[in-house]
Amino acid sequence: MDIFYTFKAIFISGLFLGSLYAIIASGLSLIWGTFRMYNFSHGSMIILSAYIALQAISVGGFLFGVITAIIISFFLGIIMEKIIIEPFLDKPEAQLIVLITTLAAMLLIDNSIQIIWGARLKKLPMLLEGRLDFVGVGISFQQLIIISIVPIILILFSIFLKRSRIGLAIRAVEQNLDLSLLVGINVRNTYAITFGISAILAAIAGVLLGSNYLISPSLGAGYLLKAFIVIIIGGLGSLTGTLLAAYMIGIIEAAGQFFLGLYWTPFLLFTILIVVLTFKPTGFFGEKGA
Predict the structure, then answer these.
(1) CATH number, domain containing residue 9
(2) Average of pLDDT values for 231-248?
(3) Which of 60, 91, 132, 245 makes a 20 to 30 Å CA pair with 252?
(4) pTM of the model
(5) Which domain holds residue 240?
């Protein structure tokens, strides 16, 4: 086999995987940056969003399904923050309590999906069917769209955080909570909206995943684990680090699957994670004390 073809195929496959991991991990990174807490229900929200989109698509078509999933996920995110996070923010062991409550939410969501939609594998319609030759490598239109659209979504998300009033409030709370309170920012509402925005990113990730892979009620845990690897290597709370680490992990995983096989690739990823934590505990772009 032509070695240049092999590396081109690995690179394109890595970009595709990295795009998925970037959109999955960005919502998780946003929650950590604002709350300094882990949200273990994020992976389950991704899968729930995919099922909501699937149900809505059967009623009103693909675009209707996507919009419905985004809107419902946003309000579910706000409701979840009000129920499982806000009551415990002032507690002495808030981080530990929220870890437990989000784990409980993960189990509740997974089991609810199974009760409502059943345990059988399902799949959303593809964004666009067909294939083309790209730099000498075959790639589906589906993969090309995902590779192209994810950076655009994340760039728009970054602009939103830097330019909009809500985005500036989120960044202010992230950087200095006490000062945010002094200048009159409603921190509680900002927390809720942040969780809602994270759920929107989860909904987009769910649609992209569900249109490319078969989905099941328990699938979220695996993608949550990949997201943790990405945000730890990139740097907790750093969206830039998350984006770069996602593509790095995607390419490494694609290369690992080709050269080592499917079962040894997770071992490779965890080895890299251990090395990074040993020599750069804050990740490549993380801040000290994060």
Answers:
(1) 1.10.3470
(2) 88
(3) 132
(4) 0.92
(5) 3-279
